[in-house]
Amino acid sequence: MTALLDAPAPAADQPPATRRRFLRGPLDQPAFVRPAFLGLLVATAVLYFWDLTASGYGNGFYAAAVQAGTQSWKAWLFGSLDAGNVITVDKPPAALWVTTAFARLFGFSSFTVLAPQALMGVGAVALLYATVKRTNGPVAALGAAAALAVTPVAVLMFRFNNPDALLVLLLVAAAYCVVRALEKPKWLLLAGAVIGFAFLTKMMQAFLVLPAFALVFVVAGPGGLGRRLLHLLGALGALVAAAGWYVVLVDLWPADSRPYIGGSTDNSLLELALGYNGLGRVLGGEGNGGGGGGSTGFGGETGIGRMFGASFGGEISWLLPAALIALVGGLWFTRRAPRTDRTRAALLLWGGWLVVTALVFSYMGGTTHPYYAVALAPSIAALVAIGVRELWRGRAAFAPRAVLAGMVAVTAAWDYVLLARDADFLPWLRFLVVAVGLVVATVLVIGVPRARKVVAVVLTAAVLALGLGSAAWAVTTAGAAHTGSIPTSGPTSSAVGGGTGPGGGTRSGSDSTTRMGSGGPGGSASSELTALLAASDAKWAAAVSGSQTAASLELATGKSVIAIGGWSGTDDAPTLAQFKAAVAAGEIDYYLSGGQGGGGRGGSGSASEIAQWVQANYTATTVGGSTVYDLT
């Protein structure tokens, strides 16, 4: 198979029977594989693009940064929230680079904000297929790709504009490069470079797969141990170069001519990576609360059961028990295989990815959201598909049959529990899943007759038992609108943290405009306030505390709005002196009272200082229920 894939294309004068036809695929694989793969990609695209714009701008925070990037090249480079470049979003800008490029080419709209993530999802499915195919053949590859496509949290995030979609695509691409490196070590350099770019997407979360990748190459890579370690060192250099160039660029760029790095304590991208978006996420602390506790939006209680709880369970755990069984059983059955055995290498790759990432997510004490679990989806899908394929091949023996039966039975039982958590969602489905699962598990334990029709029926029933619950939850996720900063999968639309529709307001039926009022988090502007700011010709139409409120105003008006203090109003940007200078230069027309946060770190800072200075020197008026200060 490897030799065929790497061989040059046949010459045009060769007989047609020897040419690789697009629809047929390689001649040494079953004829159904290529059509099934293409059909899967089409179905995935339909699932991810269907009624995509129902979610409006999705996460208005990132959508506003895309809008700013279409108005300013500097805002595009740094990931600024406003075209005037006061402050960036609290993540590195790689995902924004991609989405903004799409919006610049095709115009800024709800579709151009969300479509790139859907394309990334289709790409991730295709790459997972290619990766699993190289180690375990096309049938397992089809199973893995299909399982990823209908994982609920994957459907959620590939239809949403958070950075996680690009992160998953890059992680799967890096896994593909690692598998190729088991044949040609030079691919390991590309794997390192891809992970470096993933760092520029969501910082240190990209590094959670590194232990698995390194382990696989050390165990199963070609050549002696010393040479393998040298290749790993080279990959590390490629990673540092791919991630470090941008860190150096930000550090060397004069701070007074670029935006403040949102979320950092010292206007440093490296500090942001190590602090707020690094150890702060794991250990918690100032600015990283929310982890643990009873809030499902922030992960629920920490501990080994977190991935199965009310917060993460419906997002990712449908096939998680089966994946863990496949991992343990697969490693046992391959314990005497040669060092370079590809199946064991695949189990180490995806199993290491799953175990390390799941443990970190389970015990994170800082800010944790359920949609983070999308990073687990490729590993779970691959493990289940590889496990089913390899155990089915060994079904002549009782032990593989028993393990496979355990995968099916446990999945059916667990899907019953997950579906029962929402008793109103297709109440009959959980009974069907558990019934089919138990029947299939019993047949597998007893032994499957060799008759082809019987085998086909058992395999079909096994696939239904393993995937029906997850697929149903995924399809209903695609049918619901999701906005705000903490989307969740399932049949209910989610709007936590200030989502905005194409008109700038929170979508609620046909009404796309709600009143900002006191400027609560994610509040949208009234039509009167929107009209006032839209008429502004200043560099910044307004300034308001907090990024969510500022983003909502930017999307509603198309104008730049200063998000004083960043995401929670606690970043010291702009400073009071900078704000006074901008007002004196006539660059800000209005100040809006309220918004999110207020006050800097430890109860002091630019947000509270600016609020006090404006209130002491300007007269408040009311526009559409919002308190407005005219700074002109």
Automatic annotation (TrEMBL):
It is found in: Cell membrane. The keyword Cytoplasm does not apply. Residues 484-525 are annotated as: Disordered. Residues 90-243 form the Glycosyltransferase RgtA/B/C/D-like domain. Residues 484-495 have a biased composition (Low complexity). Residues 535-617 form the Putative mannosyltransferase YkcA/B-like C-terminal domain. The keyword Disulfide bond does not apply. Residues 496-507 have a biased composition (Gly residues). Its main location: membrane. Keywords: Cell membrane, Glycosyltransferase, Membrane, Transferase, Transmembrane, Transmembrane helix. One of its GO terms (molecular function) is pentosyltransferase activity. It is a multi-pass membrane protein. One of its GO terms (biological process) is response to iron(III) ion. The chain crosses the membrane at residues 31-50, 111-132, 138-158, 165-182, 188-217, 229-248, 316-333, 345-364, 370-388, 400-419, 425-447, 454-475. GO terms for cellular component: plasma membrane. This is 4-amino-4-deoxy-L-arabinose transferase-like glycosyltransferase.
